[in-house]
Amino acid sequence: MKIVFVVSALIALAASDHPERFLDLQADMEKFLEECSKETSLSHDEVNAYLVEDGSENDDKSSKYIMCFFKKRGVVDDDGNFDLDKAREAVKEYMKEVHAEDDAEALECVQEKDTAEDTGLALAKCVQKRRVELEHKK
Fold first, then answer.
1. Which of 28, 52, 53, 127 is most enclosed, with most CB atoms within 10 A?
2. pTM, whole model, 2 decimals?
């Protein structure tokens, strides 16, 4: 099963600085994903599918799922502010898995929108689509 952009990116980002903590982070990620799934009634597979589709079905739920995860990992603070620098680093780490950490198109996905929710959802969709595109080229 593919992992949601948010999960892989944040695991990779956190593990890159402290590889000895990878297993603890992975356990935390699974816990966070389960909590966010319960909060939104969406499965990991549903969010994965949604991120690469163009329809607006589940926009609200998927946005809540993504924001839930970003908040639990500290990319979004308690006041709802989205940290674009942390997001850029997460994109680079996530794209390393397809040997494209400096992919300009993926990095251009990191753009502030009107709200943190809009920023998180747009970022996740944009980067996941780019990653799938690069994976299919190989």
1. 127
2. 0.73
